[in-house]
Amino acid sequence: MSTVLSAETLSAAPLSSATLWSGRHADSRELEHWSAVAQTVAAELAAGALERDNSGEDPLEALELLRTHGLAGLVVPAVYGGAGAHWETAFRVIRILARADASVAQILGYHYLNSSCLAFYGAGRDQSAWFRRIAEQDQLWSDALNPVDPDLELIADGAGYRLTGLKRFATGASATDVIISAAQASGGRHDGRIVIFAVERGREGIRFPGDWDHLGQRASASGSVRFDSVHVGEKDVVGFDEGTAFSTVVTPGVQLLFGNIYLAAAEGALEQARELTLARRNSWFLSGVQTYAEDPLVHRTYGELVARTQAVEALADKLNRRYDEVIGLGEAVTEADRARLEVEVAGLKVVSTEVALDVTSRVFEVTGASSTKRSVGLDLYWRNIRTHSLHDPVDYKKTEVGSYFLNGTVQPISLYT
């Protein structure tokens, strides 16, 4: 497998974006190896996906499966003990896993992006110890960064700070090892700065109300996290939100993750629907054929759904490679670079949302009434995509793309754009 940069290069310089990401693409060997690993994990995840969805409990055993197969350290540089894989590879792994269990795949995708905030927000800092812990301990990182909740309070207390407040939709926080968050410091050495920090899940004062009870993504551990006077020391500081173009490239990465998960919902639904259709032993009495699998109207429906899904796949593959190119620029990323990437990914968000919703709903037309049984679980794909696609309104993604196309207008940078 290829690595992003050689160990000698990484060891010779302080950590920066350039030591993590070179802008080069994954080679076929790397992609094939990790795709095979992901396929193995996906097969095991699929066996328990419906049970995890029904229980709604934190997917602790499933996350152990990710660790066992080396997926926790996938994008950690090789010199720190990780696999040193590319983002194209990471997004492909997520897509394969999401076909089997979108909840677990979402947690892993967030882990890759949250742990990489060590570089996005900590450029120039020595982050080697953080990365080594991720690789050596197979750590998984989550976040408490929901921007629509009131800000957390980070108030100076001696040499450190005390963190207080509530963050909803903290995906994976109750099930992973480390939670990354941010708050504007009040007092102390970082007064007035937006501090990015990471704390272990079990730290005193961190509580999980267990309030995630939604239609889909039920095993994503996406409930709230409450911080009650949690100590945040200097050793917990990852970096600072300075609003640089490079640091904000993490947000298009999150949106790209969503696009791949939505695509996976369509792919997974089609895979299961195909099995169900082939297993149907009869046909509609007016069709003139022996089985539903021979019915031209069934062929037409599948043809439309498959073709549209393939188009989304082509766009996702292109942008997965593009992400490696942009973040490989490191601190040299310009506002224009960032804007183009944002708008391109917004386009994927639009089509992946609409195609996935359509596919996961219409597959029932070719699988029949028996496929609506709860024990079949075909509805899981629709429930997941319907729930997660409301994360941020897709109509605003359309306006992002349209305003840029017409006027070159770029939306204000946020954790959604």
What topology does this entry show?
Elements: H1 7-12, H2 17-20, H3 28-55, H4 60-68, H5 87-100, H6 102-115, H7 117-120, H8 128-137, E1 141-144, E2 153-157, E3 160-167, E4 178-186, E5 194-200, E6 206-207, E7 225-232, E8 237-240, H9 250-279, H10 296-327, H11 335-362, H12 379-388, H13 394-407
Parallel strand pairs: 1-4, 2-4
Antiparallel strand pairs: 2-3, 3-7, 4-5, 5-8, 6-7
Helix pairs in contact: 3-5, 5-6, 5-9, 5-10, 6-9, 9-10, 9-11, 9-12, 10-11, 11-12, 11-13
Describe the structure.
The protein has helices spanning 7-12, 17-20, 28-55, 60-68, 87-100, 102-115, 117-120, 128-137, 250-279, 296-327, 335-362, 379-388, 394-407; strands at residues 141-144, 153-157, 160-167, 178-186, 194-200, 206-207, 225-232, 237-240. The protein folds into three domains: 7-140, Butyryl-Coa Dehydrogenase, subunit A, domain 1, CATH 1.10.540.10; 142-240, Beta Barrel (Butyryl-CoA Dehydrogenase, subunit A, domain 2), CATH 2.40.110; 247-407, Butyryl-CoA Dehydrogenase, subunit A, domain 3, CATH 1.20.140. Helix 5 runs parallel beside helix 9. The protein starts with 6 loop residues before the first helix and ends in a 10-residue tail after the last helix. It is of the alpha+beta class and 417 residues long. Residues 156-230 form the Acyl-CoA oxidase/dehydrogenase middle domain. Its EC number is 1.14.14.21. Residues 258-392 form the Acyl-CoA dehydrogenase C-terminal domain.
